[in-house]
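Open question from group meeting: does this chain pack into something compact, or does most of it stay loose? Before anyone orders reagents, we agreed to write out a predicted structure and look at it together. Recording both the input and the output here so the notebook holds the full record.
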Amino acid sequence: MNQNIMQNDVMLVQNGEMDVNRFIIKYKPFIYASIYQFNGRFIVDGDELTTIGMMAFVEALENYETRRGSFYNYSKLVIRSRLIDYHRKMSKLTDNEILMTENESELDYQNSRIDTINAINSFNEMEDNFFRKEEIAQLSEELSHYDITFKDLEKLSPKKAELREKYIRCAQFIVDNEELLSRFLTSRRLPTTEISNQMMITRKQIDRARKYIIALVLIKRGNYAFLSEYIKLW
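Structure tokens returned:
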């Protein structure tokens, strides 16, 4: 797969110079390969995972911006995120989903249930680690456009929970305001005046946490399901 050609084709689609359906058909093998990497088995047209993968690919195309890094990496992340959502939905255990058969003893049932739960928990943990690494790589690429590294974030992470929550609210304020978000993405600068006036925070505090707030904005507006859960721990 030539990533440069794919990137160029995305630009053609967004500029109306290539038909969307033609683009999807052209990169069907890429979609199938992404599903195979997740599922570990070959799929065919009509497979439910195929539908999910295709819809995720279209979603990635509709939401893609060059600030997100390469479309190749971004679309793979979206496809995998949607597949894991589906997997979790299908594999979710409830008390009614594991039933004793007539020939099973209570002990056999309990052992079988424990083994099943442990297997699924182990699988989910491995998946979580894999997708977390994928998201970190994708976010790292986005942050590079703002001259920010994860080492910067480690140094700038507020020690006080109250201050951290304040920065999180500042980031959410930007994400919820379409005009401010658009201005931020275009200029790559925080709307300091508006944040200071609306969020009751000093310009000095904003400037000191500039990189940290930018990272929060990118996570909140991006497709970072796992990293979003860890924002409050930073």
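Observations to bring back to the group:
The CA atoms of residues 180 and 194 lie 9 Å apart.
The first helix runs from residue 3 to 14.
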